[in-house]
Amino acid sequence: MIRPPAVIGLISDTHGLLRVQALAALAGVDAILHAGDIGDAAILEQLATIAPVTAVRGNNDREVAFEAVPETAMLQVGAVAIHLLHDLKLLLAKDEAAAQVIVSGHSHRPLIEPRDGRLYVNPGSAGPRRFSLPVTVAKLYIAVDGGVKAELIELNL
Fold first, then answer.
1. Whole-Å CA distances, 14 to 34, 94, 97
2. What is the largest CA-CA distance in the chain?
3. What is the rounded CA–CA span in Å between residue 12 and residue 108?
4. pLDDT, mean of residues 48-54
5. Which of 2, 6, 36, 115 has the fewest CB atoms within 10 Å around its CB?
6. For 95-147, what is each residue's pLDDT tens digit?
7. Which among 94, 97, 73 is positioned nearest to 84, based on CA atoms?
């Protein structure tokens, strides 16, 4: 169990490419959440050398290696509930209502948005560059008092 204060590394849409810059940016975190489109099961193994990993399956994770990876996950860090999924459009109202933080991927667009008393975070894409979007990961900071904030980290390529 993760106890606050905690720093949670957020990564998504690696699509089979785990950059050394992403590993460096996530070094020292207490846990890592991968919001899908992993692309290669070895990526989860590499991330696990840094911290415990919770991952969800993305729409491109169709291989046998990902059959055991759930489509959504709920984590508790102290008093803070975090809902992890790949595509925000598939978020169910009951899951949204139960969480203070919603972490998603899919769009490749990094986002930190407080909305309706919740924090929505998309760490963007850490894998192959898509269009002119930045290559990013994120960190989620959870305080002992239940306060949360997020930070986007653009990877220097």
1. 9, 28, 28
2. 41
3. 8
4. 98
5. 115
6. 999 999 999 999 999 999 999 999 999 999 999 998 899 999 999 999 999 99
7. 73
pLDDT confidence of residue 157: 81
CB atoms within 10 A of CB 61: 21
- Six token digits for residue 66: 């990902």
**Dihedral class, residue 15 (left if φ above 0, else alpha if ψ from -120 to 50, else beta):** left
Provide the whole-model pTM: 0.97
How far is residue 69's CA from residue 101's CA, in Å, rounded to a whole number? 21
Tell me how far apart the alpha carbons of residues 58 and 72 are, in angstroms, rounded to a whole number: 10
Buried b (16+ CB within 10 A) or exposed e, 112-139: eeeeeebbbbbbbbbbeeeeeebbbbbb
Q: Which two tokens stand for residue 9?
A: 């590394």
What whole-number percentage of the chain has pLDDT above 90? 96
Helix or strand or coil: residue 47?
helix
In one-letter notation, the amino acid at residue 145 is D
Tokens linked to 153: 């980290």
Looking up tokens 């984590």 gives: 75
Q: Where are the beta strands (DSSP E) in 17-123?
A: 31-34, 53-55, 72-77, 80-85, 101-103, 111-115, 118-122
Yes or no: say if 145 and 119 are a contact pair by the CB < 8 Å rule. Answer: no
